[in-house]
Amino acid sequence: MRLRWSVALLVVTMMSSGQAQTPSTTSVTAAGGPIVITALGHASVQIEYGGKVVIVDPVTMMADLSKAKPADLVLVTDIHGDHYDPAAVAKVRKPGAPAVVPQAVADMKQIPNPTVMMNATMRTNEQSLAGITVIAVPA
Question: Where are the beta strands (DSSP E) in 1-58?
Fold first, then answer.
């Protein structure tokens, strides 16, 4: 089962589809400051906004994580190796930062202290996700 995150992340996923590539960065004007989106390769994406860094699907095999900043929040959307790489999650995750994963990833017990989200659920910034609201929608 695959999790998908809000409309903004769906746009980012479309931007980053394809083979491993040199990271490219796009900045989008938003209330409260720019949203900086860095495509790290395949489905691996870094989003910066309001002093927070979110990394989606960090993987070492298909992405260049050398440009990744320490993440305040890591989102893993799928159990497959092109979206889920426990070593990459450990590499980009700040100490104590939440890692939001599907139940199937949590069941593998390779990511310490994961936050499990089911499809069609929302966690708000009051629920310990680095002050970020996350919406999981089915693919």
Answer: 3-5, 24-28, 35-41, 44-49, 52-56
For 1-139, where are the alpha helices, taking DSSP H only?
7-15, 86-92, 103-107
pLDDT one-digit tens code per residue, 40-67 = 998 999 999 999 999 999 999 888 899 8
Cβ atoms of 98 and 115 within 8 Å: the answer is yes
Q: CA-CA distance, 14 to 72, in Å (whole number)?
A: 23
- For the question of whether the overall pTM of this predicted structure is more than 0.85, the answer is no
Distance CA 5, CA 61 (A): 22
Q: CA 21: distance to chain centroid? A: 18
